[in-house]
């Protein structure tokens, strides 16, 4: 039983959400517009779509390398983060360990640390270790950067798994490794997937550390895109193409996460 | 899983408790130690390093001149550097404006979307997209839209009769331009979390309010807001801390300029880094951490008190 007013609100909601995404339509549209149409003072609505800007991004701005760097760094970092988080979050969620709650909160508090404070020591540390501008260096930073959030989120998911299955397995004589491997891992599947996706998102979009640490060989997508505007700030078509390529995976991610995204965004405070 | 004999089963159950507990504890530490080592090495250690650097003169380009100087860096920032106070002030203004606008817009949008309409799931998914897109990508998109000559925003506002603005390229409007981009990107986050809170209100409460003819503003004030208050607290806290740390969005739109118009604390630390004065930068970072902690702590206290008060205000039925 919906009142006419509510119905009007529903229509308004649809319109507002559709309109809200206008900047995204605009950048996608710009990325396939011919350059003349982009630079026109009046927006041009009818044009021949072109892939020129995407090609340009690869040919002139070594986009392939940035894409590959981002893929290598982000995927490796996500994988390592998840392995570490899986073990430690299980211990924090389920095992008898002194001060588990305090430890979890301390780990979470690291998520709030401003990146600007630790980026500089990282730079100096990496300078001494000769790891500036390396993939390994970036992977290490991203593991440290993503771990607090991953442990916290995954711990929340693990606390939701019913205990009796685990108890039964223990009574059947399963060791810790087998319990984690055969019981916890399959049962926290969605939690692991959601945590991994969030970790991927944060690393994929990360800018500050990459700005400090990368120079040429390990440059990630966000850095490469921001370099494009430093060099030629009129090449909006090519920049738009690059932006679209960087944001497409994130749009896919949103559809993958669906109802789980709130939990991740609110640090598990809202389920 | 091997079948166990009755004897083995009995043995495993009958294992003395203290011993079992000890083993579990050891396994737990084994599982958790790698994470702790990594976090200490990658967060705590750099933080301490940074803290120590704050009391030194260090130059990025000339490592040989490093020496301990006590509180000189802090003294310089707090009493001799006008930029410092300007950046702190800007950060506060930024945080206050951005977060409050996001809260109001986010709440209104959540009310609009708190409906039984079938499409609401799709709307929610679409609306959250900005939150997941990198600030670099969205910052550049906004910068392009704000372009004074060819930008679409000036086109739109001139076509409805307003004057064209210089947006991010002028000192008096740059901060507003960047704020718009930030507000646009994070309002959906506020909406979504508040919406989740609203949808968690039990139907009986809503029904009871309807029967009592509690409607409109009273309904929001007496039922909705008190019931979703814990959720609002989380949103405010996350938004305050994250908006104070803002870096990438501003970096790609204005670099802190023009002049110092958008030079927020985190952006300024990068320019100090580029100038090579690492000691000053570390001291700056130190002060930011203290500041964020004070703000978070103060907020938590205020919100906690308000929560208690709002619980008292809430009707007994709810």
Summarize the structure in words.
The complex is a heterodimer of chains A (271) and B (318). By secondary structure, chain A is mostly helical. Chain A is 76% helix and 0% strand. Chain A contains 15 helices and no strands. Chain A has helices spanning 4-20, 22-31, 35-39, 52-61, 63-94, 100-109, 115-129, 135-159, 163-171, 176-187, 189-205, 208-213, 221-231, 236-257, 261-265. In chain A, helix 2 packs across helix 14, helix 5 (63-94) packs across helix 11 and helix 9 (163-171) packs antiparallel against helix 10. Chain B is mainly alpha-helical. Helix content of chain B is 74%, strand content 1%. Chain B is built from 14 helices and two strands. Chain B has a two-stranded antiparallel ribbon. In chain B, helix 2 packs across helix 14 and helix 13 (265-275) packs antiparallel against helix 14 (278-313). The two termini of chain B are 50 Å apart. The model of chain B is unreliable at 14-19 (pLDDT under 50). At the A-B interface, helix 1, helix 2, helix 5, helix 7 and helix 8 of A face helix 1, helix 2, helix 4, helix 5 and helix 6 of B.
Number of helices of chain B: 14
Main sheet summary of chain A: none
* Unreliable segments of 5+ consecutive residues of chain B: 14-19
Which chain pair has the greatest contact?
A: A-B, 96 and 97 residues
First-to-last CA distance of chain A? 28 Å
Note the beta-strand portion of chain B. Answer: under 5%
Backbone structural class of chain A: mainly alpha
- The ordered H/E elements of chain A are HHHHHHHHHHHHHHH
* Major pleated sheet of chain B: 2 strands, antiparallel
What kind of oligomer do you see? heterodimer
Shape of chain B: globular
- Strand fraction of chain A: under 5%
Fraction of helical residues of chain B:
over 70%
Record field, number of beta strands of chain B:
2
Average pLDDT value of chain A? 88
Could you give the distance between the termini of chain B? Answer: 50 Å
Number of strands of chain A: 0
């Amino acid at each position: 039983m919906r009142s006419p007013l509510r119905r009007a609100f529903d229509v308004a909601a649809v319109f507002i959400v559709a309109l809200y995404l206008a900047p995204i339509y605009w950048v996608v549209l710009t990325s396939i517009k011919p350059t003349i149409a982009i630079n026109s003072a009046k927006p041009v609505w009818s044009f021949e779509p072109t892939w020129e800007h995407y090609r340009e991004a690869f040919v002139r701005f070594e986009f392939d390398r940035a894409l590959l760097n981002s893929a290598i760094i982000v995927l490796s970092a996500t994988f390592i983060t998840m392995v570490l988080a899986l073990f430690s979050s299980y211990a924090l969620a389920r095992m008898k360990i002194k001060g588990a709650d305090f430890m979890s909160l301390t780990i979470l508090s690291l998520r709030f640390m401003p990146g600007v404070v630790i980026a500089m020591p990282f730079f100096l540390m990496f300078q001494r270790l000769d790891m500036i501008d390396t993939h390994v260096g970036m992977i290490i930073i991203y593991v440290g950067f993503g771990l607090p959030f991953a442990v916290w989120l995954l711990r929340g998911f693990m606390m939701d798994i019913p205990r009796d299955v685990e108890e039964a397995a223990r009574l059947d004589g399963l060791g810790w490794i087998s319990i984690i491997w055969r019981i916890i891992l399959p049962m926290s599947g969605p939690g692991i997937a959601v945590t991994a996706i969030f970790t991927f998102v944060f690393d994929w979009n990360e800018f500050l550390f990459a700005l400090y640490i990368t120079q040429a060989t390990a440059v990630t997508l966000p850095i490469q895109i921001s370099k494009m505007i430093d060099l030629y700030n009129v090449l909006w078509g090519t920049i738009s193409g690059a932006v679209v390529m960087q944001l497409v995976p994130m749009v896919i991610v949103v559809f993958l996460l669906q109802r789980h995204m709130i939990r991740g965004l609110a640090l598990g405070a809202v389920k | 899983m091997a079948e166990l004999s009755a004897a083995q089963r009995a043995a495993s159950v009958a294992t003395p408790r203290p011993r079992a507990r000890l083993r579990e504890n050891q396994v737990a530490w084994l599982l958790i130690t790698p994470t702790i080592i990594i976090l200490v090495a990658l967060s705590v250690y750099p933080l301490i390093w940074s803290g120590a650097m704050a009391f030194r003169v260090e130059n990025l380009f000339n490592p040989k001149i490093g020496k301990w100087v006590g509180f000189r860096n802090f003294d310089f920032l707090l009493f001799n550097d006008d930029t410092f106070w300007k950046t702190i002030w800007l950060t506060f203004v930024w945080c206050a404006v951005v977060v409050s606008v996001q809260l109001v817009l986010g709440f209104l949008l959540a009310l609009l979307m708190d409906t039984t309409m079938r499409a609401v799931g799709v709307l929610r998914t679409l609306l959250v997209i900005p939150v997941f897109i990198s600030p670099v990508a969205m910052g550049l998109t906004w910068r392009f839209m704000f372009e004074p000559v060819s930008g679409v925003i000036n086109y739109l506002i001139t076509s409805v009769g307003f004057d064209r603005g210089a947006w991010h390229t002028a000192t008096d409007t740059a901060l507003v331009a960047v704020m718009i981009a930030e507000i646009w990107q994070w309002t959906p986050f506020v909406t979504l979390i508040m919406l989740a809170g609203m949808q968690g209100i039990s139907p009986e409460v809503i029904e009871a309010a309807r029967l009592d003819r509690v409607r409109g503003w009273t309904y929001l004030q007496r039922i909705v807001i008190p019931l979703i208050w814990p959720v609002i607290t989380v949103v405010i806290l996350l938004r305050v801390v994250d908006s104070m740390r803002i870096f990438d969005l501003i970096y790609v739109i204005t670099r802190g300029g023009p002049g110092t118009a958008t030079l927020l604390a985190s952006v300024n630390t990068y320019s100090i880094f580029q100038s090579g004065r690492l000691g000053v930068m570390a001291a700056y970072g130190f002060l930011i951490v203290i500041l964020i902690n004070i703000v978070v702590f103060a907020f938590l206290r205020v919100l906690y008190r308000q929560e208690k008060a709002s619980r008292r205000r809430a009707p007994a039925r709810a």
